[in-house]
Design brief:
515 residues; alpha+beta; 4 domains; 11 helices
């Protein structure tokens, strides 16, 4: 074989390899290399928002930001719920009469599935087709399709899920085929600048009416919202109209910059807007983008619960603090690394890994941002003294936390007659052997069991309920109902009693302000 022949066959083999690779990529639905580069995290504009609002302000925002907003539709499958279909095979909705009578459960129901369709909104954040939306829009979707504002109602682009986060209800998807005319990226603002009264605009796909624009103001910031995992997230509240299908769309400031992802509403009209909508602050999501791009958000955990109520000056004085600061430990989760390191109920964590802790939310943010597996110093105040402990940071497992919440047994109250107490709106009873066994209270612990609370009383409003067993008041263990009554009577009106209760197998700190 000649040298020319060798060169010819080498080139032929190389070409065949390229063609084969292209065929395999098309068969396996692999993302083209032009779409696979690293995601560029959008820069946030933190300059002050100033200037007047005129007749063209909102028109300009809609014109400039609208092309970055997309409509999303998804399809998935879920198991058929036996007995919830009529004889035509149509699922029976709550309050709906079945046509032709109710279909009886069939032996093969557990193997049957029904097609589920959904719709939502999103916005483009990168030229390579990355799009932010809500996790609940694309969760469990088999197929995801995206429609740009420039496309007709029959044209859709395929997309794939890249990463999602249940805690912030955020998901990152990517177009697997880009349009010929290119795409428009959204601009990011600084959600920490947003204040109540600021003008905002929502753009989305409510009721599948693409690129619908609504305008309102920020109603509140830092509004706590309990996520599916049981943890709390601070949200932006707005009265800009948000409806079903707006989920995942942007909330924009008057410069047309994204300051939040529209996520949920509170309504008394089914799925209609009543002016109470919520958006995830974009700063929080922006910090997660590199992790979402990798497909998994990793967070730290030390296994403590902290009080959600703000600390007052009187509380700070009782705890030996110069001012309201830090996070008060109110409970521990299973296998808590903080508890193993020596942290106790009613400790006030004032510094974590060298960073000062301003309040309860600040501690949560610092801990979740800490790399799992590291051991860090934790400075706390206990009995008005400063203590430093070394605590190992574990990895947060939101699925496990949600499972534990779902398995939690309801508290059961004893049936004997209550004994009234004053000032706190609750009644207590001596902890007898039957109640101790029923509520699984450790031997030698517990002074009284709560048997009733007034619905709008101090104890009830603070979260104490029937079946809670009072273990200590103001840091002092109580052994019987008389000791509990005496300790509560000694608390001045207007001050908080720091009550530790036994609840569902755990000690929980509950501060109750005496009225």
């Amino acid at each position: 074989m000649t040298r020319k022949s060798n060169v010819f066959y080498a080139v032929l083999i190389a070409l065949a390899s390229v063609v084969t690779g292209m065929v395999l990529a098309s068969r396996l639905d692999l993302t083209p290399s032009s779409l696979a580069r690293t995601l560029n995290v959008p820069a946030a504009n933190s300059s002050p928002i100033t200037g007047p609002i005129d007749a063209t302000t909102f028109r300009t925002i809609a014109h400039e930001a609208g092309p970055s907003v997309v409509s999303i539709r998804v399809q998935g499958r879920r198991p058929v719920q036996a007995g919830l279909e009529d004889f035509f095979g149509i699922p029976i909705q709550p309050g709906q009469s079945p046509r032709g009578g109710r279909r009886m459960p069939q032996p093969d129901d557990q193997d049957r599935e029904q097609l589920v369709q959904g719709a939502g909104s999103g916005f483009i954040i990168d030229k390579t087709g990355y799009i932010l939306t809500n996790n609940h829009v694309v969760e469990d979707a088999d197929t995801i399709e995206v429609q740009l504002s420039s496309m007709d109602e029959f044209s859709w682009l395929p997309a794939k899920l890249v990463g999602r986060d249940t805690l912030t209800d955020t998901a990152l998807i990517q177009l697997t085929r880009l349009p010929d005319g290119g795409i428009t990226e959204a601009k990011f603002g600084d959600s920490s600048q947003i204040q109540p009264g600021d003008w905002v605009m929502a753009i989305g796909n409510p009721f599948q009416l693409s690129n619908t624009v609504t305008v309102g103001v920020v109603s509140a910031v830092g509004r706590p919202y309990q996520a599916a995992s049981g943890r709390w997230e601070d949200m932006i509240q707005t009265d800009a109209a948000i409806n079903r299908g707006n989920s995942g769309g942007p909330l924009l400031n008057i410069r047309g910059e994204v300051v939040g992802i529209n996520t949920m509403i509170i309504t008394d009209q089914g799925s209609g807007n009543v002016g109470v909508g919520f958006a995830v602050p974009i700063n929080r999501v922006r910090d997660l983008l590199p992790s979402l791009r990798e497909g998994k958000v990793t967070r730290g955990r030390i296994g403590v619960s902290v009080l959600r109520t703000p600390m007052s000056k009187e509380d700070a004085e009782d705890l030996g603090l110069p001012r309201p600061m830090g996070a008060v430990v109110s409970g521990f989760s299973a296998s808590s690394s903080a508890k193993a390191a020596g942290v106790k109920l009613n400790d006030v964590i004032v510094e974590f890994n060298g960073k000062p802790v301003k309040d309860n939310n600040d501690l949560v943010d610092i801990v979740t941002a800490t790399t799992p597996g590291s051991t860090v110093p934790v400075k706390l105040i206990r009995d008005k003294k400063t203590i430093t402990l070394n605590v190992k940071v574990d990895e947060l497992d939101l699925a496990a936390e949600s499972s534990n919440i779902a398995r939690a047994e309801p508290r059961s109250a004893p049936r004997e007659a209550p004994k009234a107490t004053g000032g706190f709106g609750m009644t207590i009873q001596e902890l007898g052997p039957r109640e101790r066994q029923q509520l699984q209270v450790p031997a030698g612990r517990g002074g009284a069991v709560v048997v009733d609370v007034q619905p709008f009383g101090a104890a009830g409003q603070s979260g104490i309920g029937a079946g809670d067993v009072i273990l200590s008041v103001q840091g002092v263990d109580v052994k019987n109902a008389d000791a509990v009554s005496a300790a509560l009577d000694a608390v001045p009106s207007g001050r908080s009693a720091r009550i530790v209760v036994w609840r569902q197998g755990e000690e929980v700190l509950v501060p109750v302000r005496k009225r």
